[in-house]
Amino acid sequence: MIPVLIVLNAGSSSLKFQVYDTPDSAEPRLVWKGLYEGLGGAAHFVVRHAGGADLDERLWTSGEEFGHEEALIHLISWLREHQEGRKLAAIGHRVVHGGQSFSGPVLVDDSVVQALEALVPLAPLHQPHNLEPIRIVRRRLPGMPQVACFDTAFHQTQSDIATLFALPREMRDRGVRRYGFHGLSYDYISSVLKDYGPRLAKGRVIVAHLGNGASLCALNNGASVATTMGFSALDGLPMGTRCGAVDAGVIFFMLREMRLSPEEAESVLYKKSGLLGVSGISNDMRVLRSKAATDVNARRAIDLFVYRITREIGSLVAALGGLDGLVFTAGIGENDAATRAEVIKGLGWAGLTLDEAANHNAGPRISLGSGPTAWVIPTNEELVIARQTRGVLGDMRSKLAS
Ligand code: AMP
């Protein structure tokens, strides 16, 4: 029997999963990946082979009450039907917030669940969805080892000063500090930098995770020293629908003058801002690129996105005391050559020179000359969760026996 583990990434109406073989000491090996969408309504299940070829698909009608619990039950039974010589040994979860106490992945037990529930106020729009499948598995498959892997943990190497807000001291004691997110993505990029050269692995590198969520992380010798996201996943760069950094005074204006409730203000900042809010068209970079030549608002949204990335890179270069490399990753970073070109052209002062042809072909190296180098490196957050889950549990075969 080959032990397998499932990696889960749960959202409000979606459940992404990947299934990994975890033989002995080798790197976890992806077997299948898939997604449930439209949970709570007309749900859709699709699963593909690791190489991308379609394997199976199913649709439910909206009257069937198909939510996260039903999706997990369906996934477990789908796995049993298809596993052939494999057996489920553990489940690894993406959990957005590990707070101050979790500086690495952790085996879930009663006290961990309690501690993670206490962090819901720090990430109210993400943490509850991440915790739901953990609770469902504890109920439905008691004894199944589960590991929580955190987006915040990678940033625990940052200095006290880098994580401090200039607020009264008692607020820090309440957990109001910069945490940083996208840590699973930065962990993956940090782990592969050695494949792109020792200067990157040992040097001062800025990673631009540019997807629907977007942030930058400054790495020194592979460890996080600063990042653009702070207390919540709202801070830093403009994103698909999130505002990025805004003056806190704007929020008082929304509450007092515009008379929005805290929930309405939160919804504006998380769901109606960023590329969507500025363009008034879409949060999807592909759509904005297709309209940018003719639509002034699409162009402004992209220009603001690029401007903020370039400015924040300047700030992180200062935090690092120089720059050896810049890495682009995630949906926009990996696929949108125009965004990469516009950012690099704004960084000539830092010694970066764009290699147009390489950028067009997505690199991996997209810079010329002997100065800092620029790269395109696809991220793999799920593999990090698989690695961390295996790392916490040790010998996966022994989990089959128990
Ligand atoms: P992610 O959250 O990492 O899946 O990234 C989603 C973002 O990547 C969306 O804004 C997409 O428009 C963008 N994206 C994906 N593929 C492309 C592409 N080929 N060109 C430009 N943007 C893309």
Describe this structure in words.
The chain has 402 residues and is of the alpha/beta class. It folds into 2 domains: 2-150, ATPase, nucleotide binding domain (Nucleotidyltransferase, domain 5, 2-Layer Sandwich), CATH 3.30.420.40; 183-381, Nucleotidyltransferase, domain 5 (2-Layer Sandwich). Helices cover 38% and strands 20% of the residues. The protein has 16 helices and 13 strands. It has helices at residues 68-82, 110-117, 127-140, 169-173, 183-192, 198-202, 248-256, 262-271, 274-279, 285-291, 296-320, 330-335, 337-345, 356-360, 381-393, 396-401, and strands at 2-10, 15-21, 29-37, 44-49, 54-59, 86-95, 106-107, 146-150, 204-210, 214-220, 223-227, 325-329, 373-376. An 8-stranded mixed β-sheet has the order 5-4-3-2-1-6-8-7, sandwiched between helices. A 5-stranded mixed β-sheet has the order 11-10-9-12-13, sandwiched between helices. A hairpin with a 7-residue loop joins strand 2 (15-21) and strand 3. Helix 1 (68-82) packs across helix 3 (127-140). The longest helix has 25 residues, at 296-320. It is globular, with a radius of gyration of 21 Å. The two termini are 14 Å apart. The mean pLDDT is 95. Pathway: Metabolic intermediate biosynthesis; acetyl-CoA biosynthesis; acetyl-CoA from acetate: step 1/2. ATP binds at residues 16, 209-213, 284-286, 331-335. The record marks 182, 242 as: Transition state stabilizer. Its EC number is 2.7.2.1. Catalyzes the formation of acetyl phosphate from acetate and ATP. Can also catalyze the reverse reaction.
